[in-house]
Write a structure and sequence with these properties.
With about 130 residues, this protein is an all-alpha fold. Helices cover about 75% and strands about 0% of the residues. It is globular, with a radius of gyration of 15 Å.
Length: about 130
């Protein structure tokens, strides 16, 4: 018996909404820190949700974010994996160290990240 896995993008959509909310004001360190945390979990949900869709479509060996974004680009789910590779680097910075420089790097990436996540959500909806 073949099981069809139900994939929900609702968690990703909710994370995206929180990200947008936290990015509306980035004046204080507290606001910036909240936005960085929203970036972290939105990023994680982005690649993990895309991975589920890829696996459902028969793509194998997508066990890392880099592989997921490379295959997502190959299948037209995202336009350019390089921007997502930048987000991988930024996410890795937040995992290993946390200081004002990292905060600044992440905050400068937030506008681009928001656009890319919105486009990813649209692409995922078309596939589900």
């Amino acid at each position: 018996m073949v099981q069809t896995t139900i994939i929900s993008i609702s968690p990703l959509e909710q994370a995206y909404k929180r990200l947008v909310f936290f990015c509306t004001s980035l004046v204080t360190e507290t606001e910036q820190t909240a936005a960085v945390q929203a970036f972290e979990y939105t990023y994680e949900l982005s690649w993990k949700t895309a991975r589920k869709v890829l696996i459902r479509e028969g793509v194998q060996d997508v066990n890392s974010p880099r592989a997921v974004f490379r295959e997502s680009a190959r299948l037209g789910m995202i336009a350019d994996p390089e921007i997502w590779f930048t987000f991988i680097t930024v996410r890795n910075l937040t995992s290993h160290t946390y200081n004002d420089d990292v905060l600044h790097v992440v905050v400068t990436q937030l506008p681009s990240f928001q656009v890319q996540v919105r486009l990813l959500i649209t692409a995922l909806k078309q596939r589900l």
